[in-house]
Structures are given as structure tokens and as C-alpha cells.
Amino acid sequence: MPRSLKKGPYTPEKLLKKIRGKKPDAREVIKTWCRGCTITPEMVGFTFGVHNGKEFLSVKVTENMVGHKLGEFAPTTRFSRHGGRMQREIETKVAEKETEQIKKAAE
């Protein structure tokens, strides 16, 4: 649920202090744990290291991201894959077809 419009966007003052005095497009990564922080126009061009619970993921802020949260661009879970015996059989068939195509192309 979005934050109330009368309250305004949530951007901690500590994060804004880190931005002040720095130029956008700098190669420096600004580390933050504030995933719920709303991206404001002042943040455009900066690269943030957003913590996903294990490591910091680099997020370069563009104009399209304004109004969204920083955490939306740093996923906390990694999709491994759907699995099981049937999935392995499908993958082996695909691999066999690829090897056959490579052999035909080599001839």
C-alpha cells in the first residue's frame, strides 16, 4: 500500500546528506540499507548500493525510477528453477537437439 500523499515521500535525511555535494554520474557507489526509500528527482544519475539482505546490489537511478522504492530494483530472492524429473528430461532433449545441430553445421 502506498504512503499517504499528505505525508509525502519517505526519503531519510541521512541518505540525502550522502548525495549533497556530489556530482551525479560519479563512479562512487552510495551504500544504503534503506530499501523503503522513495526515489526522488535529486537521486537521478547516482548509483546506489542497495542491500538485499546478503550483499549490496548496484542500482543506477534513471528518470523512469522516480516515485518507486529503492528496494524494487534489488531483489531479495534468487529464482533457482522449477525442477524435478520431467524438467531434467526436457533439458536433456533440448541439449541433444543442440548437439545434433552443431554436428550438422560442422559437416
UniProtKB/TrEMBL annotation:
GO terms for biological process: ribosomal small subunit assembly; translation. Keywords: Ribonucleoprotein, Ribosomal protein, RNA-binding, rRNA-binding. GO terms for cellular component: cytoplasm; small ribosomal subunit. It comes from the Bacteria. Belongs to the universal ribosomal protein uS19 family. Residues 77-107 are annotated as: Disordered. Pfam families: Ribosomal_S19 (PF00203). Protein S19 forms a complex with S13 that binds strongly to the 16S ribosomal RNA. This is Small ribosomal subunit protein uS19. GO terms for molecular function: rRNA binding; structural constituent of ribosome. The keyword Signal does not apply. The keyword RNA-binding applies. Residues 86-107 have a biased composition (Basic and acidic residues).
